[in-house]
Amino acid sequence: MKQASTRVIAICSDAIGETAEAVALATLRQFELTNTEIKRIMNVRHEDEITRLMEEVSSRGGMVIYTIVQPELREAIKEESIRLNVRTVDIMGPMMQAVIDTFNDTPKRLPGLLHRLDEDYFRRIEAVEFAVNNDDGKDVGAVLKADIILLGVSRVSKTPLSIFLAHKGKKVVNYPVVPELTPPAQLREVYSGKIYGLTIDAQQLVKIRSERLKALGLPVDVHYASLERVQEELKYAQSLYDSLGCPVIDVTDKAIEETAGLIMQHF
């Protein structure tokens, strides 16, 4: 059971709440909050669900972020927020009203349209499967089938970046760059605009590798996590990127979403 001191940020949605949670997570990165839980409440359909949620949030000194399209449920949240003095943030409401006012149109008010099982949905599922099956250079032949090819040394977030881009519907292959490993010849057969080289500050990479070894219960004073080895790998990677003529993205201190945004903008 959570301690009473744990505050809550409740994500309330009549669909799955992914949009509101993404906004909440992006915002919370700007703060150093402790004892704070993000709780997602999905598929809300009745006012009594909102009443229970708001009372819990009130008792825990939290706030509610919501994406609700049904007018009666939106009104219930507003009423409860006033009654219980709970701060709420409406993610979709202002945007919907702006579209209504600007284009004189009426919203469908159907929950979950963003995640309906359409062609885009199945394309994303296929892309995720592709990324998982071709993680870390498992199949070099997949390079020729990919929309995006990520190159980088160990621990520059190639895998999570691949999965994030896959959720955007892009088929991604990521391939490890190691001085002792000859890069696949297929890289020379594809358009260089599909290839993205990832680099990072050497000192930060040393820290990341050391933390990873520590988490695995392994010694941290090994060649893999030494500054000399890291600098050697990064220098080799840069020479490979130069030879391929591909864009290079420095991921130092960047969130996965930020790096993905740069790639999608270029793509």
UniProtKB/TrEMBL annotation:
Taxonomy, superkingdom: Bacteria
InterPro entries: Kinase-pyrophosphorylase, PPDK_reg
Keywords of this entry: Kinase, Nucleotide-binding, Serine/threonine-protein kinase, Transferase
Residues reported in the UniProt entry to bind ADP: G152, V153, S154, R155, V156, S157, K158, T159
Reactions catalysed: N(tele)-phospho-L-histidyl/O-phospho-L-threonyl-[pyruvate, phosphate dikinase] + phosphate + H(+) = N(tele)-phospho-L-histidyl/L-threonyl-[pyruvate, phosphate dikinase] + diphosphate; N(tele)-phospho-L-histidyl/L-threonyl-[pyruvate, phosphate dikinase] + ADP = N(tele)-phospho-L-histidyl/O-phospho-L-threonyl-[pyruvate, phosphate dikinase] + AMP + H(+)
E.C. designation(s): 2.7.11.32, 2.7.4.27
GO molecular function, one term: kinase activity
Coiled-coil zones: none
Entry's family note: Belongs to the pyruvate, phosphate/water dikinase regulatory protein family. PDRP subfamily.
UniProt cross-references to NCBIfam families, sorted A to Z: PRK05339.1
HAMAP family noted in UniProt: PDRP (MF_00921)
Biological role: Bifunctional serine/threonine kinase and phosphorylase involved in the regulation of the pyruvate, phosphate dikinase (PPDK) by catalyzing its phosphorylation/dephosphorylation.
Name by which UniProt lists this protein: Putative pyruvate, phosphate dikinase regulatory protein
